[in-house]
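hiii, so i know i said id send this last week but things got crazy w the move. better late than never?? heres the sequnce for the chain we talked about at the cafe, plus the structure i predicted for it. fair warning i was half asleep when i ran it
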Amino acid sequence: ERFGKPVILHVVRSFDRLFALHRDIAPAMPWLVHGFRGNPALAAQILDKGMQISIGLHFNEETVRYIGASRLLIETDDTPDLTEVASRVASALGVSVQDVIAAASANASLFLKNAVVGVEKEL
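okay and structure toks below
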């Protein structure tokens, strides 16, 4: 927050602590949980708190369907090939790879734009 940067987090079995910290800080900057493999209920809690989720090569298909393309971010943390991730996500959603890439690109742009807007609010 002090530096006006978004936060990208790798969280393993510590979501209660994450939620408490997020509540206490009440950040203006966006937070993103990357490499998320959890279930839809946990994804709902993260999204309801205004955080974002990024999906890599390994994910829960029910969770991806819950998140949907409108809020989905994809990553290459566990593979060098983003197209492979997009292909697996597209299969889970029943849409084209191009649709996943377009949606994820738009969502990434929005995530970064929100980071800039957060900085402008601080100024």
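btw The first strand starts at residue 7 and ends at 9. thought thatd interest u
miss u guys!!
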